[in-house]
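User: quick one, sequence for these tokens?
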């Protein structure tokens, strides 16, 4: 199984004797000891839980296994949840790499659900009111915004993976249109005029012919990933 590491935050390396550092980089943790009656030997089972932070050797960048073995830790819950969700999405990329269109099929399905959830109400963020209880309208709007951000997460991690594999490949027009619909809805709910200019939509590629061959000219996956980072840092 591929290991993904939380890059934004570090955690203390466990100080008990069950933790072992390999080659000064990988941190392994003992999870079991299996005795073999045939060989009369005991096999130690260890799992990688992180990578040593080169700047602070007493700390490490944790992976999924760390959060499984150490549910009580200093990483904020929202950071942990987003990281674990991202790991799940990245694993789906094995299928997406075989059929990249699946990324957009998921976005299209999500947009359809989003439209239904917001039927009769154009807003995607909770309405401000003085009511003690949220109105059905505001509850529906909040639910719609959560769905919208989840759709964006799917897009972001998918583009991040594809940018790593095909950094110079131009994104197809159909994908651009569907992703832009999500970005436009998010951008429309940002009130901060200081950041709005950085929240750009993806320019649709143009078809160009060279030597009798047709090709698309436009932004590549790596270009688009840079654009999406501005959306990624928006408050939830």
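Assistant:
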């Amino acid at each position: 199984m591929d290991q993904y590491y939380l890059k934004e935050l570090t955690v203390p390396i466990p100080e008990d004797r069950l933790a072992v550092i390999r080659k000064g980089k990988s941190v392994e943790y003992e999870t079991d000891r299996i005795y073999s009656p045939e060989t009369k030997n005991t096999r130690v089972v260890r799992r990688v839980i992180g990578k040593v932070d080169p700047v602070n050797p007493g700390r490490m960048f944790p992976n999924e296994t760390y959060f499984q073995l150490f549910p009580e830790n200093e990483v904020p819950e929202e950071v942990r949840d987003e990281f674990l969700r991202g790991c799940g999405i990245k694993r789906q990329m094995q299928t997406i790499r075989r059929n990249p269109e699946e990324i957009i099929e998921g976005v299209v399905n999500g947009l359809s659900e989003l439209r239904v959830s917001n039927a009769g109400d154009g807003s995607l963020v909770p309405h401000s009111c003085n009511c003690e209880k949220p109105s059905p309208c505001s509850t529906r709007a909040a639910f719609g915004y959560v769905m919208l951000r989840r759709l964006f997460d799917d897009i972001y991690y998918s583009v991040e993976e594809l940018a790593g594999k095909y950094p110079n490949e131009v994104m197809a027009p159909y994908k651009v249109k569907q992703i832009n619909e999500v970005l436009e809805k998010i951008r429309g709910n940002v009130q901060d005029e200081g950041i709005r200019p950085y929240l750009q939509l993806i320019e649709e590629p143009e078809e160009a012919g060279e030597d009798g061959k047709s090709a698309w000219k436009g932004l590549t996956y790596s270009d688009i990933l840079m654009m999406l980072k501005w959306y990624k840092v928006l408050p939830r």
